[in-house]
Amino acid sequence: MSRQKLNVKKLAKVKKRYGLIGVIFVIVATLAGSYVEDYLSSRSAASLQVFETNGIELEPVILKRVVDGDTLVVTNANREEVRVRLIGMDTPESVHPDQEKNTEAGELASQYTKSVLTVGQTLYLEYDVQKTDRYHRVLAYVWLTDDVNPDDIATNMLNAKLVADGYAVAKEFKPNVKYSSLLKQLESAANNER
């Protein structure tokens, strides 16, 4: 509230020069400036809040780019770039620095993820027990819609969609195991269809 601490000398000069109307103007401008600043900071804080739908907390983000089948770069409400690692599943490598580790299946998974998503698309992150990994990536389940329903997981959650469509395998990364059994069921179903 430093704006509200009015400089007494400045007020005295304003009063001399412009009279009482000048003093009132300075006070009103100072208070209005504080009000606007408080209002704007409360609005940006509200936009950063996670919201809940069907009992699931989601954080909206904007897709900036797809790194590979299971890694994205998004922009959060703070306009920060965040690297997101999809959890509960794993895709083969396609952009590993050691070229020998990259596979055709990894490239297919990467292309599939790119075909499902659009740069600028709003995605919704759901967190599990750990929010980041040792590489400082955000760990999340990525929902394609904010109307989440675990019954529609195979079509509305990117992690599950990759498993259900055969581009990823279900993989537990403890302690992040919220959807492990569902993802394993989707993997079994995908393997049975082949």
Automatic annotation (TrEMBL):
Residues 57-194 form the TNase-like domain. The chain crosses the membrane at residues 20-36. Gene3D superfamilies: 2.40.50.90. SUPFAM superfamilies: Staphylococcal nuclease (SSF50199). It comes from the Bacteria. The keyword Chaperone does not apply. PROSITE patterns: TNASE_1 (PS01123), TNASE_3 (PS50830). This is Thermonuclease family protein. It comes from Turicibacter faecis.
